């Protein structure tokens, strides 16, 4: 409670006591009690304004930094994709025609080192291609398995009845041959249609399934016939039979 100062004025026949009147210029009046709470021009008001402004700036900068970090991670480290369709079933989207599960969430390794060391059996992501023209659709992604590397000779998948015979093709330098795991040719639009794809198109390698059920993809077991799941069973075996590894030596055409 503010102190009251009194002036005593003599009056006959008795004394009267009056509250003291402070001038508006009196420092005690300027910084006393609740008057200072509403005074935004005072030191405390300026301090509160400065604190609020700094907090808002810190929040903004933190958000920008977090967003930048998120973008860097997605572009150069790890990314999350949804896989839909039946071209990789039953290895991916195993329940596509059974449980009506039409998509799975997967984690993709998009590091530069992975793109430099591609191997047979890897499940990779790349822009979808249009027909045999090899024109890409950047807005859409395809997920396929690498079954042949540069220098391998591939015999194309057996065609449906009445559609000509099988062909052989050498996988050129800096290219890979990709196919889906689906046994039905109609379910997979892959290198049997558009040929080998450039390694430069590959965005990353699928590491694991996150949803609906966690599962690590052991791509290195694709050639291990003792593992029926990772090797693709009988169809995976038929894919490997169609590939002659390191059949020819290929060179960089840009080097004379």
TrEMBL record:
Gene Ontology molecular function, alphabetical: serine-type endopeptidase activity
Residue ranges occupied by any Peptidase S26 domain in the UniProt entry: 59-156
Biased composition (Polar residues): 21-41
UniProt-annotated stretches for the region Disordered: 19-47
UniProt GO BP: protein processing involved in protein targeting to mitochondrion; signal peptide processing
Primary location: mitochondrion
Annotated InterPro entries: IMP2, LexA/Signal_pep-like_sf, Pept_S26A_signal_pept_1, Peptidase_S26
Subcellular location: Mitochondrion inner membrane
One Gene Ontology cellular component annotation held by this UniProt entry: mitochondrial inner membrane peptidase complex
Catalytic site: 87, 144
Membrane topology designation: Single-pass membrane protein
Keywords: Hydrolase, Membrane, Mitochondrion, Mitochondrion inner membrane, Protease, Transmembrane, Transmembrane helix
Family: Belongs to the peptidase S26 family. IMP2 subfamily.
Protein's recorded name: Mitochondrial inner membrane protease subunit 2
Organism whose genome encodes this protein: Trichophyton rubrum
